[in-house]
Design goal:
about 280 residues; alpha/beta; six-stranded mixed beta sheet; 13 helices; disordered N terminus
């Protein structure tokens, strides 16, 4: 028999508890196991001293059961992803892309991050935010006390914007491209039902709201109602890579603190003081 390694169990258990917390659990009920004496073994099964599960916990468990019983959630997301893969609404993007980039993370996530469009790395791997900006986003999520597996990450545009042959870098998606692709993202939001959506950059905010020509400095630091969720705009991680000043980092972190507060997450003094000095 293989020996159990507690070093492997603890991280997995912690991740599992994180998922339960984000599904709405505030505590877990652990019933006391009955004590089996020689007498009650001989007498057969009798009333044990196991306590009845509190109604509040039963309600939580029932709610979780209802969520998990919605096997159609995974099915609907898969069907939607297949629609995205088969989409030909923008022929110039179809001919340029390596593959579509649908989204990744927890389908029951309460927190969702939305960027503008896949870049070169994302186009190659088929996953959002895996390049340098994505690595910084991962660190930002970790600083919140979360992980990429707990949240959901997607883009407004599901294809990498095409660029002239021989040219490097990425270009900003057009308003028309984002408007054509937005129904896919709105369908994701409708299925996942996040409580908070963080729009990463002005383009992501424009694509989500279809309010074009908005500067991120005009909307960050504010919260908006958006399809049943709270929309919090902030700077794109790539902005911080090019402008890594302490004030800029603090602005983004304040927006993430707002997201944490809206989600009812505990915030330590250490977290509140990040990037103040």
């Amino acid at each position: 028999m293989e020996k159990i390694s507690h070093g492997k169990i603890v991280p997995s258990l912690y991740k599992y508890l994180e998922i339960l917390r984000f599904l709405g659990f505030s505590h877990l009920y652990l019933p006391r196991l009955p004590h089996f004496s020689k007498e009650n073994i001989a007498q057969g099964s009798k009333k044990s001293d196991q306590k009845e599960m509190p109604p509040s916990t039963l309600k939580k468990a029932s709610s979780l059961s209802q969520n998990l019983s919605k096997e159609k959630l995974t099915e609907e997301l898969l069907l939607l992803e297949n629609k995205v893969q088969a989409c030909r609404n923008c022929p110039h993007l179809v001919s340029f892309r390596t593959q579509t980039v649908f989204g990744t993370g927890n389908p029951y996530a309460q927190l969702m991050f939305v960027g503008e469009a896949p870049g070169a790395e994302e186009d190659m791997q088929g996953q959002p935010f895996v390049g340098p900006a994505g690595q910084l986003l991962t660190k930002m999520i970790k600083a919140m006390g979360l992980s990429r597996e707990i949240v959901y990450i997607a883009n407004v545009l599901k294809c990498r914007p095409d660029i002239p042959k021989g040219q490097k870098g990425n270009r900003k998606p057009t308003a028309d491209e984002m408007s054509r692709c937005l129904p896919y993202l709105l369908s994701q939001i409708k299925l996942i039902k996040p409580k908070v959506i963080v729009a990463l950059g002005a383009t992501a905010y424009e694509g989500l709201t279809e309010q074009f020509g908005v500067k991120i400095s005009e909307v960050r630091g504010r919260c908006f109602d958006f399809h049943g969720a709270i929309l919090i705009p902030t700077y794109h991680p790539s902005f911080l890579l090019h402008n890594p000043s302490l004030p800029n980092k603090r602005k983004v972190w304040e927006d993430l603190l707002t997201a944490m507060e809206k989600l009812g997450m505990p915030i330590s003094e250490k977290q509140r003081n990040y990037f103040l000095s």
